């Protein structure tokens, strides 16, 4: 089995995962939408369980 690098980006609306080989060649990319909660004007919150689920789905 080869060696790979996994990059994860958790933005405010989408969790993304990208897999690269050791030479930087992109092998796969996936994303999963997540929700941001706005309880008050100027406030944002993330449900950590939902964040984990969207990240795991992207991976």
Question: What does this protein look like?
Answer:
This protein has 59 residues and is of the alpha+beta class. The protein has one domain (4-58). 19% of the residues lie in helices and 39% in strands. The protein has 1 helix and 3 strands; from the N terminus they run βββα. The protein has one helix spanning 48-58, and strands at 4-10, 14-21, 26-33. It has a 3-stranded antiparallel β-sheet, covered by helices on one side. The longest helix is centred in the C-terminal third of the chain and has 11 residues, at 48-58. The radius of gyration is 14 Å and the shape is elongated.
Give the structure's gist in a few sentences.
The protein is of the alpha+beta class and 59 residues long. The protein is 19% helix and 39% strand.
């Amino acid at each position: 089995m080869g060696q790979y690098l996994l990059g994860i980006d958790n933005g405010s609306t989408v969790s993304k995962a990208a897999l690269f080989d050791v030479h930087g060649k992109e092998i796969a990319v996936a994303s999963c939408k997540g929700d941001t909660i706005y309880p008050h004007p100027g406030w944002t919150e993330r449900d950590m369980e939902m964040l984990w689920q969207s990240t795991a789905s992207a991976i």
